[in-house]
Amino acid sequence: KNQVEQSPQSLIILEGKNCTLQCNYTVSPFSNLRWYKQDTGRGPVSLTIMTFSENTKSNGRYTATLDADTKQSSLHITASQLSDSASYICVVSRPSGNTPLVFGKGTRLSVIA
Amino acid sequence: NAGVTQTPKFQVLKTGQSMTLQCAQDMNHNSMYWYRQDPGMGLRLIYYSASEGTTDKGEVPNGYNVSRLNKREFSLRLESAAPSQTSVYFCASSEAGGGSYYGYTFGSGTRLTVV
Predict the structure, then answer these.
(1) Residue in B with minimal Cα distance to A5
(2) Taking Cα atoms as reference points, which of A67, A87, A64 lies closest to residue A8?
(3) How far apart are alpha carbons B23 and B60 in whole angstroms?
């Protein structure tokens, strides 16, 4: 079954600290993997996208990694800010099909002062 | 640049009532989608439109209908609302199909409560 599992479910960190969110998937075949940020009351916004051949992709303080062999991805946030408080969703795409995108349930991150 | 605009932002319906959720995009995207987001679950696809004039069922289409009015607009209709349809609904658009490299642009959502 095509699934995307994220951990932890929720996380609380102090402002300025780093954190890493995990994503494991069983989706096959694989096209690409995205991390989205979803602020409360808003729609998801894409942070990074990685294809099969890409191991690391950065977007400012966000760095995503992908290990296509073990089907694992991580999102590392450096020097967290209060504005990083949001849900982070891992989404794996298949090349085609009625439901090519498989969404994880997200990790809820709270950054506190 | 507005992106994807959804209306209304909030709605309360009584069981059995009908309503239409509106979605419009101004990015000249070909594909449009309707998702629902429930607590503790990932976004689930209700219906999608790969291109103007076509619509297809997604993962959870029961109780919903859609209309791709033109390239810009994609509406979602609940004919007889049920409490199980209480959810946050997101419209999204993309330049090409979901499996491609093109990302999705999401609207800000419609929070629907059915009592």
Answers:
(1) B42
(2) A87
(3) 19
